[in-house]
Amino acid sequence: MSNENKSEQPKRAQVNKRTERRKERRSRRRDRRRERSQSKQYVGRLIPVWLKLLIIIVLSLFALFIGLIIGFSIIGDGQPLDVLRFETWEHIIDFVRIEE
């Protein structure tokens, strides 16, 4: 029995050392996290969300109009700015309604 106790003691000491190391690492991690969270300050947004959405919508519309102009003038052999006239769209809609 005494031999078993002697062999168990070094094992227990190793286990204790491991658990102590783990606890130390965890406490260091906690300390680092606390320091980071305390040192961080809120930085305001440079561009608000509503302005980003507005910019995206405006750029999308701009790209749409550029695509319409290029398509109507190059592919369709029309005047570039005629695509922006209301009469042109009335004419296109009339073609669609007739075919139905």
Key attributes of the depicted protein:
100 residues; mainly alpha; 2 domains; 3 helices
Brief overview, please?
With 100 residues, the protein is mainly α.
The percentage helix is over 70%
Strand elements, count: 0
Could you say which structural class the secondary elements and strand pairing correspond to? mainly alpha
How many individual domains? 2
Query: Biggest β-sheet, characterized?
Result: none
Q: What proportion strand?
A: under 5%
What value does the average pLDDT take?
82
| H/E series | HHH
Radius of gyration, Cα only, in angstroms? 37 Å
Instruction: List the total number of helices.
Output: 3
Low-confidence parts? none
Cα distance, first to last residue?
Answer: 99 Å
Shape: rod-shaped
Pfam family, one: EpuA
GO cellular component, one term: DNA-directed RNA polymerase complex
Protein name: DNA-directed RNA polymerase subunit beta
Organism: Gracilibacillus oryzae
